[in-house]
Structures are given as C-alpha cells and as structure tokens.
Amino acid sequence: MIDTADIIVEAGKGGDGAVSFRREKYVPKGGPDGGDGGKGADVYFRVDAQLSTLTDFARLKQFHADDGKPGGKNLCSGKSGDDLILYVPMGTEIYKKYGDRYDKIFDMTNKDQSLCIVRGGNGGWGNTHFKSATNQTPREANTGMPGEHVELRLNLKLIADVGVIGLPNVGKSTFLSNVTHSKPKIADYPFTTLEPNLGVCTHKGSTFVIADIPGLIEGASHGKGLGITFLRHIERTRLLVHFISADSIDFEKGYQTVRNELHQYSPKLTSMKEIVVLSRYDLTLDSTSKQLHVFIKKHSALTLSYSDPKSITNVLDTIIKFL
C-alpha cells in the first residue's frame, strides 16, 4: 500500500505579451494592437472518495500545469492554461517543504474537498499597454510571470470509525470479513494482513467504517515485524477494538505488548476509547480457567465465537454504543 509520497508541483507560466501593430489599408498609423499573454494554469488537489492509496504519486513525482499562450495581434489575448487537478484519497495530509523539514499545511478530510496548492503566473502585457503621448509605437511587451513551485510530502491517514488492532493472527481479518463485505486475506500464520483493510458495516440502522490494522509485535516501534508505519491510519478513528486470541498463553502480556507499542508511536492512542474482544472463544481448551476470567473482568472484555451469532451481535452492539 502506497501511503506516502514526495512530489514537486509547479503551476503554469504566464504567456508573453505580443508586440504587434495594426495594419489596414488606408490606416497608415494604426498603432499598437499586441494582446496580453494568457494566465498560467493553477494546480488543485481534490478528494476522490473512490481512491484509497497514493499509488499515482509513486509513479510520477513531478507535476507541471499548462503554460499560458502568448498574446496575438488585433488585441487577441493568449489562451489561459487549463488547471491541473490532482486527485487524492480522503484523509490525505499535505506537507510543504521548508529547508530540511516538512510542515503540515492542509488536511483533505471531506468528500469532494478542493485546494489550490500553487497558482499560475499572470500573462505579460502586450505593447498596447505601453502606448503614451510620447511613444505612439511602443516596441516592448512583458514576458509572462513564472508559476508558483512547491515541494510537497503527501501522507495518507485512512478515515475510519473503528480501528481493529492486536497481535498477528488473532482473528482481526476474520472479524472484518464476517461483519463487512471486505475480503481480506485470511490464513493461519502471522502477518497475513500486510496493509490496512477497510470495510463498511451496517448493523441495526447504523453504518460505520472498520479498519483492520496489520498485527503488532513487541519491538514494532523499533522496526520489528511490519513496524508501526500503519498506525497512522488509526489516529483518526473514534474507537479501538483490541483483539486478543482466547487460545493465547498469556492474555495480559499480549494485551500490554500492543498497548506499549501504541504508546511508543503516540501516547494519544492509549487514551482513545477501547473495546477488548477475546476472539476464538469457542476454541479455548479451558474456558473456565482463572486467568481467562480475571482478564475478562479486568478489561470488561467481550467474548467472540463465530459459531455463536449472538456474540457477534454483542460486539457490534457495543461498538455502536461506544461510537
């Protein structure tokens, strides 16, 4: 998944003004009639809700809008350049380069949102503008102004209501596939999910978007496993659903491992609303174990079994309640 890109964006240059003189029969001194140059094209970012990655910006790094056309005779102005529109996914952050650093200047979070990022240069004046009482045949005109130029970094943070987190292979993708129309890859080995998956869930009249985040392991904040680069995608969520496999050896250790990695990435993530879900509850060898019940009580954990539709309903009901 391409969720970051460095690009260069340049608006169009203005067209040059024209040096021209009116030439007609019986009009020996028609005077200047050079037209102005056209305006250079602007560059816009616009949100496209159908996009989910920045792949287009990985292939092409430089974007240049059309230049304005030069002016012509008979006071004809040059054609302005057609504005360039760059489509980005909803949730794209735009950073501008200042020296060695990038500062965030805008956040594209609304459907069909549009932003003019650089403006094209004005067209130059034709020689008509330079006529005066002492200069009836001016032979000068302005060149068009250059367009604005900027170096940018685009970061994508997916917009979802619910972020599903946990260690690898704890049933997050299975949950997503059961409650949405999303079809993430599911298998019985770690790191099946290599990038965030999104799904839309409709339950009892409520609709919300769920993001399945690749599994975290101890040391993820230092680059182990898949690292924590995908955690940016849950910064916008309203609720975290933390999956713990009921057949794990140490529930509390697994829970705290993920919480610690969240804190390493951003302390704000550990202060978000959270629901703890014990998945694969039907596969637990000893569902009466003391450790299991202590964990459930401590974290008000919900139990989930895909052979029990009521448990799925209970999780979805709780999500709606927290949202």
TrEMBL record:
* Subcellular location, record wording: Cytoplasm
Question: What GO cellular-component annotations does this UniProt entry give?
Answer: cytoplasm
- Keywords on this record? Cytoplasm, GTP-binding, Hydrolase, Magnesium, Metal-binding, Nucleotide-binding
Domain Obg stretches: 1-159
Give the E.C. number(s).
3.6.5.-
The UniProt annotation places Mg(2+) binding at S173, T193
Instruction: Write out the GO biological process terms.
Output: ribosome biogenesis
Keyword field contains Glycoprotein: no
UniProt entry tagged with the keyword Protein transport: no
Per UniProt, subunit arrangement is: Monomer.
Q: Which PANTHER family match?
A: DEVELOPMENTALLY REGULATED GTP-BINDING PROTEIN-RELATED, MITOCHONDRIAL RIBOSOME-ASSOCIATED GTPASE 2
Q: What is this protein called?
A: GTPase Obg
Q: Which gene encodes it?
A: obg
